[in-house]
Structures are given as C-alpha cells and as structure tokens.
Amino acid sequence: MSGEYCECKESDEYCESKVSGEYSDCRMSGEYCECGMSDEYCEYKEIGEYCECKDSCEYCERSMRGDYCEYKESDEYCEYKESDEYCECRMSGEYYECKDSDEYCECRMSGEYCECKESDEYCECKVSGEYCDCRMSGEYCECGMSDEYCERRMSGKYCECKESDVYCECRMSGEYGECRMTGEYCECGMSGEYCECKESDEYCECRMSGEYYECKESDEYCECRMNGEYCECKESDEYCECKVSGEYCDCRMSGEYCECGMSDEYCVFKENGEYCECRMRSEYCECRMSGEYCECRMRGEYCEYKGSGEYSECKVSGEYCDCRESVEYCECRMSGEYCECWMRGEYCECRMSGEYCECRMRGEYCEFKGSGDYSECKVSGEYCDCRESVEYCECRMSSEYCEGKVSDEYCECRMSGEYCEYKGSGEYSECKVSGEYCDCRESVEYCECRMSGEYCVCRMRGEYCEYKGRGEYSECKVSGEYCDCRDSVVYCECRMISEYCEGKESVVYCE
Does pTM top 0.85 for this prediction? Predict the structure, then answer.
C-alpha cells in the first residue's frame, strides 16, 4: 500500500503485507513498520537504507550514509564482540579492524586496500564496485602468510602465485588463463596470444581469439578452444579437446578425422553426423552428437554409469548430459530427449522442454524414489528441483507446483500472487513470485531469497533471511546483489550494494 503501513497481529510472527501480488515485510514507502508484541525486530526503511534492531540480546547493525554500526549495549564501533564473531560496517572510505583470530578481515572501501593477517586464510577486498581476492585497482594482490592462492582480475596484467601447491588464476580483458603448477606463475598473454604452461603435471587452459596454445609434456590433457584452428595433443595418455568453428568436439575437427597423440587411445569421428568413439585409459569418453544418443565407448558400453567409479558425458541435440563422478550426480540437459543414467542412490537432473522430466531412476518419473534422493525436472520452461530428501524442495515453475514425495513435507508454490510457505517438518520450499524467486532450502542450513527490492521473506519460522540457530546462515539477495552466508563454520560471503550480511556463529566470518 503506497504511503500506508501494515499492522501485525499479536503473535510471534512479523508483519507482512500483500500488495498487488508482491510480498513485503511490513515495509512501505516512507512509513514505519509496526510489528506485534513479539521478540521479532523492527525494520525501518528510509531513503534506501534500513536499521534492524533486535529486542533481545542481539545487536543493532545500522547501515546509514556515512554512519557506522553501533552495537546494542556497547560503545564500540566496527570491531569484534567478546568472541570470535565479527562486526561488519559499510561506510564511505572507512574500514574495520579484525581481532586476533584465525579468520580474515574483509574490507569494503573506496580506493583503500585490505591487509591480511598472519593466518591461513586470504584477504578479500571489494574495491570500486568490483569483486576481488586480495586485489586493488591496478596493484598486485598480496596474500597472507599462507598456502592459499591469490586471485587477481585486472586488465592486461598477470597474477603471481605464492610458492604453494595451489594454482594461479588470471582473468584479463575477455580472456581466461589457468595454470596449475608448483611454485610457478601463469603468464597469459593479451587478447590473441597464447598461454604457455610451465613444466608441471597440471594443465594450462586458455581461451583466446583465433589462436591456440601448446601443452607441455605432462600427463594431463590439452584443451583448446579456437576459431577454425586445430589442436595438437602431446605425447600423453590423455585426449585433446578442441573447439572448432563454433562447435564443441572431442578430438575432432570439422569434417576431418581427429588425430590424437602417440598414446594408447584414439578418437574416431564419422563424417556422416554420427557419433565419436574414444578409447581411453580409465578416463571418460565425451561425445557430442546431433539428435542421437551419445554412444561413448567406455569398454563397449553406452553413456551411463559403468560400475568402476567413472561416468561418461554426452551431448545430445544441442544440450549436454553430464553423468560424472560415480556416486555423485547425473546432470542431464536435453531438448525433448531423456538421459538414462544409472547410479547408486543419487539423483538424476534432467532439463527438457514442455514435457515432464523422465529421469531414468529405475524407470520412474522425476519424483522421489524412496531411497533418500530426488530428481530435477524442467517443466514448461522452468524447472522443479526436489533433490535429496530431508534437505529441500526447489520449485521454479509457471502456475504449477512441485510435490516432493517425502513424509510430512512437500513444496507448494502457488505462482499467482502467492508466496512460499513452510511445510511442517523442518523443510522449506522455493517459489517463484512475479519474476523473482524465494529459495528457502535445506531445513537447518540457509535461506536464499532473491526478490525485487525486497527483503528475504522465507518462512524460516517467521524470521527473516538470517541466522537460524544451529550454526547455519542465510542467503539473501538485496538490491541487485546477494548476501551468501552458507555452510556453517565455513564462510559468509556478502556481495551487496549498501546492505549487510549478518552471521551469528562463533569462529565464522562474513566476507
């Protein structure tokens, strides 16, 4: 309601208001939000900013223009509390200091830089609207006294890796260079040049315009993506993958045979539009075809699970079906076809157009199959993902709903002006509401909401998108960016414009 406010009931929930099919959190234009007599917090929106206060032993974190955050019952600013938590402030040109812990200090400033502590983590700074890891504008990135890597994204420069066993990733103007080595660094040229890998056992991946790169004599494979060029494999035990004239092939050129190196495997491409046979050593066979099933000869079998811990990858009619890594997952993306992946207690993810997803999990449809796993289907332009019982049911459909066959829980997403409700037994659903979606997945993990200019309204027992009491965090998308607080005791990653990410767990930090 424009210019009005919403009244909450005298309950422990928060105040909500339905306005023209949207979902709001007691937040109108220029008015206060009056919540009921409860222990919830009051949210006030004024000129694009907000202040959230708790009526309990929590703190009030305030994001104002040029102001800092003030703890409730405390005289400190932007510092740690009396624990291993953190205080994150968003100011103009300021930064905050980290206490003596094993975590790192995240700085979000304008033109400043971030210093890492003597820990095993790295320092991440956000500078001038970009996202970087230990990086400033036009400067080198310096990591702390650790074995981590420093990721740099610049224009025309390169990235230096520390003397560790981690790889150095460089991202330049429209290019991508990745070298994995020991104590060396990756020199990726500018646009149109090629990438040289050091003498290591890893591979170098470059994506350029019209050029190709050479791989060293290692045990890895050389992946080339070019425009009309071809890829030469070294004398290794792997295969050579090339991208030729807008297509994607495995050891194959346009209309020609594919010549691999002096190894025990060969790639045969048939010119009549059929399939490609690759013979490899305990590797997987990746085939790309047109309109047919992918017959990858992994010991004479089709593109399915092969019992010895390997999967194959098939490309069918412009999409791809990827069944990789045994006892993990099968991801199928096709148009009008279905993928037959045989697994052990995992789920099959299928994407199809206009039809139900027939994921061959013992010949059944895209439903819960009794052994604790779900499948993912694409239905009428969207997809419904009800994977992994006792975790979450994710539905993204148009005027349809997704039912997950688990006792006492299912996802009911009513798309026409409805919202995403909590379904009784610790599970949450994901709904798509008027072009956006609210994702409350994994009962005791995180709540991810992405709504247009609104807060995260995931029914996590009447709370907002925030910490839910068991060491887990929530994920919200606010004003074009997102705040991702995932994986308890791991990290909280926030990428927002003027909002904040709230993490409430000892020895956990929010970046």
Answer: no
